[in-house]
Amino acid sequence: MHSQHQYDTARAETLALKAVHFILADDNLQQGFLATSGIAPEDFKALIDTPDFLGGVLDFLLGNEEQLVKFCEECEIDPSEPARARHALPGAVMDY
C-alpha cells in the first residue's frame, strides 16, 4: 500500500495525462507547449503513452507556476502533487 506522498509510475502517468488534457484545452498553453517541446500536435497520439513524453508535460507545467496552480485547482489536488508525480517518471532532472 502506497502512502499518499508516494507516487508509483501508473499514478504519475495518470496525473500527467490530466495535464495533457489541461494543456490541450487552452489554446495559448497548447501553443506554448508545442513551441517549448518542439512536438507537433499530430505526434501527440504516438507519444501519449510514453513516460518520457508525460514527464516532459509535467516539466512544462511545473515551469509555469500560474498554470500549475490553475491545473491543481481544476483537478482538486495539492500543488505539490505534480512535482511528486514528476519524480516517478523517467528523466526528472529538475528539483521542484
Shape: globular
What is the tally of beta strands? 0
Overall mean pLDDT: 88
Evaluate the radius of gyration.
Answer: 12 Å
User: Which residues sit in consecutive blocks of at least 5 with pLDDT less than 50?
Assistant: none
- Give the biggest sheet: none
Give the structural class.
Answer: mainly alpha
List the helices and strands in order: HHHHHH
Strand coverage percent: under 5%
Number of individual domains? 1
Give the termini separation. Answer: 25 Å
Helix content: 55-70%
Total of helices: 6
Description:
By secondary structure, the protein is mostly helical. It has one domain. Helices cover 64% and strands 0% of the residues. The protein contains 6 helices and no strands. Helix 1 packs across helix 6. The longest helix has 16 residues. The mean pLDDT is 88.
